[in-house]
KamA family radical SAM protein
Amino acid sequence: MKFHFPKSPKPEHIAASDWNNWTWQLRHSLKTLGDFEKHFELSADERAAFTEGKELFNIRTTPYYASLSGGPGESIRQILMPQRFEIEEGSQQMLDPLGERKNNPAPRVIHRYSDRVLFLITDICSVYCRFCTRKHFTGQEQAFIRNEEYEQALAYIKAHTGIREVILSGGDPLTVGDAQLDRVLSDLRKIDHIEIIRIGSRMPVVCPMRITEDLVKILKKHKPVFLMSHFNHPNELTEEAAAALELLVDNGVPVMNQMVLLNGINNHAALVQALNRRLLYLRVKPYYMFQCDPSIGTDHLRTSVEDSLEIQKELWGHLSGLAMPNLSLDIPNGGGKAYLVPNFQTAHEGQTRHFTGWDGVDAQYVSPSADKIKKPLLGSYMEEWSHLKCGKSQND
Ligand SMILES: *Cc1c(COP(=O)(O)O)cnc(C)c1O
Ligand code: SF4
């Protein structure tokens, strides 16, 4: 191995067969102040968050993920540990920053782009990340969607033939058991117009023992299924996490990683490159690097757009394009994603554009004149394109 992925520091009194069992990890997750006090030396601010802030957003971690964290200020600790800052005023605080509640045409379905929907099959996670963008839904412990609502959600997806892709999300869809997951995937595969299924999960990070041979068999059976992981820091890449990722990829499940830039946790080019090079080595494609959404109680975890752009610009030219994530921001109120790209163009007149490259090369690119630009032959692809473009409105 080119990189070293250390084994998680399992406490000695816990049997390896328990530690490596995902249901054991969920059953023994730390939830209360008392649970946390047994594992951590809490600061006064952290303790205050438990007593004053619990209403705001549920608290939970797996013993595995807790074992990876260190003292106050350490990155993983800041992801799982509530802090007093959560209950303080911030510069922007929204309960539903993505405007999801207005794009919610059926129970647990969020339909904002014409060709793809989110399907929130559970609101439970094994770790409640303090930066979560979906605090209006996540962690209320309503669990797996009720049967009647499940049927309504499926009926919506069936009736809207413009939907090509279903993104299972939550909560964390991999907190759901194999049989139930198999049922959801089978039901979706029965719908003719569904091409791609994605599963967005933090389980490979916070409970990698969830990725079992049995689970992977199910995902393979319903291919193409993509897994969207959510690693934020290279210290999350343990031997167990690496094994989980390799098991997925070896069995034909492509894995893409979506990270979020977090203030004082991973907002430095050195950490971003370390994480993404290791992920790429494990055949995981770094996909998005998100600006943190202004979700309520996250002001202290957000970076500035300037800070994020600076990181992206530093990476340019030094990191393989394969390892490069797309820096993106979700426009509040359901405006959709907006890519944030460092600007290399310095001037533009007529057909000529002036650029300065990542290492300072100045040059011009001159386009052919507009009257020379013609369209290619389209054949039946035009029909497919028109259908895709109006997939949502056509069926509404
Ligand atoms: C982010 C998001 C998607 C997926 O977007 P991609 O750019 O395809 O990854 C789909 N629906 C909603 C509501 C989203 O927020
Ligand atoms: S795993 Fe995702 S949905 Fe769950 S708390 Fe973390 S960010 Fe929110």
Observations:
- The radius of gyration is 22 Å.
- Residues 345-396 form one domain.
- The chain is about 30% helix and 15% strand.
